[in-house]
Automatic annotation (TrEMBL):
It comes from the Bacteria. Keywords: Membrane, Transmembrane, Transmembrane helix. The chain crosses the membrane at residues 21-40, 46-66, 78-101, 107-127, 139-168. The keyword Hydrolase does not apply. It comes from Rheinheimera tangshanensis. This is DUF308 domain-containing protein. The keyword Transmembrane helix applies. The lineage of its organism: Bacteria, Pseudomonadati, Pseudomonadota, Gammaproteobacteria, Chromatiales.
């Protein structure tokens, strides 16, 4: 059976329960990174940031279970689109690793931005500007932090990312969602 894009979007909304688990996990991760950036030497904090970013996904799974989100959206076309976005974001690990060897102080900025690349896809699915707003806030915020924030690059990138997540989570929570008909 073929579904319209509108039906797919409505089903996505119902099954994902506002999709807040991943940004919640990201907020927790980047908050921990922010705190550690003030107590650990730069290289140690950098390694914690790089390897610790792998905990975002399992933490999001835990939040999804608590929030009753259908995290994987198996068999759903828009779930597959989101997976494509996550793959796009993860393909940037090549750049992060290259920067680690060439210019380690830039890695926090590349990682913080790279992990936000999929947000416009999410915004398109839910027909809300918050996805594009989140990416642009992070991009311009990271650039401003690089230029003018007198913190180490890990603290600067983490601070910008946490602020962006908090703003976006508020938008996600306050957004009016069309309840519509039962999920597909």
């Amino acid at each position: 059976m073929e579904f319209t894009l509108s039906q797919l979007r409505q089903s996505f909304e119902q099954r994902t329960n506002r999709s807040m688990s991943m940004p919640l996990a990201g907020t927790v991760f980047w908050s921990v990174v922010l705190g550690l950036s003030f107590v650990l030497p730069f290289n140690s904090a950098l390694l914690v940031m790089l390897f610790g970013s792998g905990c975002i996904f399992p933490l999001a799974l835990l939040f999804a279970k608590w929030r009753n989100e259908d995290f994987f959206m198996k068999g759903h076309a828009l779930g597959k689109l989101m997976l494509t976005g996550v793959i796009m974001a993860n393909s940037l690990w090549v750049l992060h690793i290259i920067l680690l060897f060439v210019q380690p102080k830039l890695v926090p900025y590349s990682l913080a931005l790279g992990l936000a690349i999929h947000w416009p896809l999410y915004g398109w699915i839910i027909q809300h500007s918050l996805g594009l707003q989140h990416l642009l806030m992070r991009a311009f915020g990271l650039f401003a932090a690089f230029m003018w924030l007198p913190l180490n690059s890990i603290a600067a990138a983490a601070l910008v990312t946490v602020i962006c997540y908090l703003i976006t989570l508020i938008q996600m929570q306050r957004r009016v969602v069309d309840a519509g008909s039962p999920a597909l």
